[in-house]
Every structure is written in structure tokens, then in C-alpha cells.
Design brief:
The protein is an alpha/beta fold. It has 16 helices and 16 strands. The protein has helices spanning 14-27, 38-45, 61-69, 83-92, 105-108, 111-116, 131-145, 178-182, 232-235, 254-264, 281-286, 297-305, 312-319, 336-348, 390-407, 422-432, and strands spanning 2-7, 29-35, 51-55, 73-76, 96-99, 120-122, 149-161, 190-194, 197-201, 210-215, 219-225, 243-251, 356-368, 371-382, 415-417, 440-444. The protein has a 7-stranded parallel β-sheet, with helices on both faces. The chain is globular.
Length: 452
């Protein structure tokens, strides 16, 4: 039996573990699932004879090393900042490693050591990053192979709620880490290229600069700009491209409503609010509004945000029970962003039988034989329930597939890498189609932009 160590048994690990267990007999696999919570690890084994759950504290070096030494390959599903210690141990004990997270500077520094030891440290092999890389590089390389010159690349992705589970005015529920949703777009201006001109959108204006998208059978969506699109110039080899833009997909109207929280300062994570534990939701809201001896919190809120009482934006705020004087925050030493996350969790948590949805949309504009052409590639993936979500499927399955390809010697290139080579993306994209992750590519008229 070949041993796969999976560190971290959170939400995104469900489909990953199920896939590997389904393959365990024919592929002769034994899974060791390690998590700080033994109960969480045990819940993911499904009582399968080829799975063992262990309690694993990743900060306990001896415990971590002992587990890694027993493995043939390691999958880290830990928070991104914790991968690096696992990766260093993997190099010491000569084990391949797979993660779904972005390559950090510290991880990239291990590239030479990984190559020296003929080890693969595969990163960014989840959804976004991951499936976005693979589906983009497939089409970009096909365009290059027939002599085309890339002019435009736009890429959009979003974790959303499936239509049948869309039950609130925001048309949104948490399908991934809620904290990441609340903090989205912070840490610097969004940067991208448009018709050869560099463009920048500061955080305070990010959610008012959106692009509209149409997906057949699912209606209209909007997208706001991701933080740094420019880094993909080098990653995808798009040195002379004119337009390069990546964005996050939401249902139309979400960004305008979310902007209310941004403008009030409720998404700020840089300071602690006094006595947050005993604060009511209403007091939290009032903390961001000016004092007035007679006006209500509701009146001050509408005045500050310039919204009328019959505006749908107001209904969205009321739906969140923001003005309830009896609901307590209950979080010690919490930042505004942490409190907002807690409040939103009351309304936006996916229930047991509810389904989520992933939408990905690429636009490829190129010139070939003097003619400008465009291909649009769209993918919609639906979840099954609260456990086997579209998010868990689209993050976990590529990780599992890459792990098996590495174990079987099908992926051979050593080093710290992304899934942008054919040996990685061709077999994984093909197999993902069996699980409902299917890209529909269509030739459409080329849409250039006014450089102004």
C-alpha cells in the first residue's frame, strides 16, 4: 500500500478524501488523515478500511515529522501560511507535496532544493488558483499552437449559492472561508491592463467598478476586479498582451450593497472595538454613525448612505437584522471585520441540504492571419449539499488528481510549481469532466476596448 498523508480535514477536504478513498483499492492507497480535531478527521474517513484518522498538531514538530516520514506523498490542506513548515519537512524526508494555496515567497525559495532532491512541490492546484490556471493555459497554448497572438485575457470566478438555494436578497451565502469574503480586495489597489494602459482601482472604489457577464441558463452576473492581475503576465507568458483582467463573480447588485459596509468602515480589520463582547448588533452599527440627540440609528444610516426607505439596499440591510438591540456580538477583542463576519454568518450560512455553485468565465482575444477573434469559455459546477459542495469538489478534486498523477509518475517535472504544464492540466481537465467540471468554449465576436 502507498501512504498519502492529508494534513487538515476541513470543509475543502471532503471531496478530496472521497475521491482518494474511491480509488484506494485499485491504486493500493492508504490515507492517513491528520487534523487537530480527531473527531473532524474521523468524520472524513467514512469508516473506510483504507483510511486512518489521527490527531495531528502541525505546530508539534515531532508529531509532524513522524507523520510525514510514514507517507509517500503529503497533501497540505492547512491555512496557506502553515504550508511552509510542512514543505521544509517534506524536503528533509524527500516526500512530494501538494497544496491548493498560492505560492508564497518562502515556498518559492525552496525551488532549488526541491529540484536538487527531484521533488515536486505542487501548489495552486485547487479552484482559483488551480482550475483557472489549467483551463486558461489549455486555450492559450492552443491559440499559440495555431499561430495566434494573444491580445486580451479576462478571467472571472466566483463561489455562489445555487439557484434553488438562493433565498436571500443578497443572492449570496458563504461557501468558503467567510473571513476571506469580508476582507476581499484589501491590501492595495486592484491593478490590471486595459488596451495597453495600466489601470488601478483603490479599495474604497472597488465595488463600484464592475463588469457584467451572462451565463446561459444561469442569467446575469457581475464581477469586481481582483487585487493584482498583472502578475499573470509572467505566469501565463503574456508579455505583449493589451488587456489582462481578473475578477470575482457575484450576482448583480451584490457589489453595490457590499460597498455600504466598505464606506462605513465595517470591513476594517486593523483595530479592536472596545467591549465588543457585550456590544449589540445595533450598537455596532451606531459606532460608525455620527451622534445625534434625536435621530434613530436607522435614520442616521439612511442619511449617511443616501438611501431611501423603499430602496432595495435598505431591505438588504434589514434582512441581516443589523439593528437588533438584543443580539450580542459575543466576540472578545474583535475587529469591525470580525464582527461583520459574525453578523453575516447568521443569514449567509449554507444549510445542510442547500447547494452552492461555482461559476468560471474566461475571455480570450487574439489575432490570427490579420484577423481579431475571441473565444469565451464558461464553466458552472453545482454542489450536492452542505458537505459535498461545489467549492469542495472544485478545490479538492484537482488536488487529489494531481497527487495520484505524481504518485504514478505521470507528473515528473520537479520543483516548486503551478499547474501550467500540459503534463498536469491535460489529464486533470479531462478527468474533471467526469465530475461535472466542464468548460464550454465558444467563438464570439472580438470585443476590443476604448483605451480612454
Amino acid at each position: 500500500m502507498r501512504t498519502i498523508l492529508i494534513i487538515g480535514a476541513g470543509r475543502s477536504a471532503s471531496s478530496l478524501i472521497q475521491y482518494l478513498l474511491n480509488k484506494s483499492e485499485e491504486e493500493k492507497l492508504h490515507l492517513i488523515i491528520g487534523d487537530l480535531s480527531l473527531a473532524s478527521a474521523q468524520s472524513k474517513t467514512n469508516n473506510h478500511r483504507n483510511a486512518t484518522a489521527i490527531s495531528l498538531d502541525v505546530f508539534d514538530k515531532n508529531q509532524r515529522n513522524a507523520a510525514i516520514q510514514k507517507a509517500d506523498i503529503v497533501i497540505s490542506m492547512l491555512p496557506a501560511h502553515l504550508h511552509i513548515e510542512v514543505a521544509r519537512d517534506c524536503i528533509v524526508y524527500k516526500k512530494h507535496m501538494v497544496t491548493a494555496s498560492y505560492v508564497s515567497d518562502a515556498m518559492q525559495e525552496l525551488d532549488a532544493l526541491a529540484k536538487e532532491n527531484n521533488l515536486i512541490l505542487m501548489n495552486e492546484i485547487g479552484l482559483d488558483p488551480g482550475i483557472d490556471h489549467m483551463s486558461a493555459m489549455k486555450v492559450i497554448n492552443e491559440i499559440r499552437a495555431k499561430g495566434g497572438k494573444m491580445l486580451l485575457f479576462e478571467s472571472f470566478c466566483g463561489g455562489l449559492v445555487a439557484p434553488e438555494s438562493d433565498t436571500n436578497l443578497w443572492n449570496y451565502k458563504f461557501t468558503w472561508a467567510p473571513r476571506n469574503v469580508v476582507l476581499a480586495g484589501q491590501g492595495g489597489a486592484a491593478k490590471f491592463l486595459q488596451e495597453g494602459t495600466y489601470k488601478y482601482i483603490p479599495y474604497w472604489n472597488l465595488f463600484r467598478r464592475t463588469e457584467f457577464l451572462e451565463v446561459e441558463g444561469y442569467g446575469r452576473f457581475e464581477a469586481y476586479s481582483n487585487r493584482d492581475s498583472l502578475k499573470y503576465i509572467d505566469i501565463y507568458g503574456l508579455k505583449n498582451i493589451l488587456t489582462l483582467y481578473r475578477g470575482t463573480i457575484r450576482r448583480v447588485g451584490f457589489s453595490k450593497a457590499w460597498n455600504m459596509f466598505v464606506q462605513l468602515g465595517m470591513t476594517d480589520d486593523s483595530y479592536i472595538m472596545e467591549d465588543s463582547e457585550n456590544m449589540s448588533y445595533r450598537q455596532f452599527v451606531n459606532s460608525f454613525l455620527p451622534y445625534h440627540p434625536t435621530d434613530s440609528v436607522e435614520s442616521k444610516m439612511r442619511l449617511i448612505l443616501k438611501i431611501d426607505q423603499d430602496d432595495i439596499m435598505w431591505d438588504k440591510l434589514l434582512e441581516l437584522d443589523l439593528f437588533n438591540p438584543n443580539k450580542k456580538v459575543g466576540l472578545q477583542n474583535a475587529s469591525p471585520a470580525q464582527i461583520l463576519e459574525k453578523i453575516l454568518g447568521d443569514s449567509w450560512t449554507l444549510q445542510a441540504k442547500e447547494k452552492d455553485m461555482i461559476v468560471m468565465y474566461h475571455k480570450f482575444g487574439y489575432e490570427i492571419n490579420g484577423k481579431k477573434e475571441q473565444i469565451d469559455s464558461k464553466m458552472v459546477c453545482l454542489g450536492e449539499n452542505q458537505t459535498y459542495t461545489a467549492m469542495a469538489k472544485s478545490v479538492g478534486l484537482p488536488v487529489a488528481m494531481a497527487t495520484l498523477l505524481i504518485l504514478n509518475g505521470k507528473i515528473k517535472t520537479p520543483g516548486v510549481q503551478l499547474p501550467i504544464r500540459e503534463e498536469v492540466y491535460l489529464p486533470i481537465l479531462k478527468e474533471l469532466e467526469e465530475y461535472g467540471v466542464i468548460f464550454n468554449e465558444q467563438a464570439v465576436p472580438y470585443l476590443g476596448y476604448n483605451p480612454e
